[in-house]
Design brief:
96 residues; mainly alpha; Helix Hairpins; 3 helices; 0% strand
Length: 96
Amino acid sequence: MNWLLETVALLLLVTLVLGLIRIWRGPTIADRMLAAQLFGTTGVGLLLVLAELQQIAALRDVALVLALLAVMAVLAFVARVWRKGPEGETEEDPPA
């Protein structure tokens, strides 16, 4: 059973690296935000797998806090885009 959890943890780490590449390359702000959301969800999964592997119950609490922070980050991003538009323009600004 441990080898399966270790394999899942390794695959989750690969997913985090791919998400980091997406954040670095972009091309749009929305792509970067989705990759950051991937960090949150994958991080939660990785913490839960590590909690099971190492039998550390505190990692489950950390995973819960990370999940809540990831939701807050998405809400902040959506609120920003809702106010300023996808290109960062306000509704009062005329298009150039």
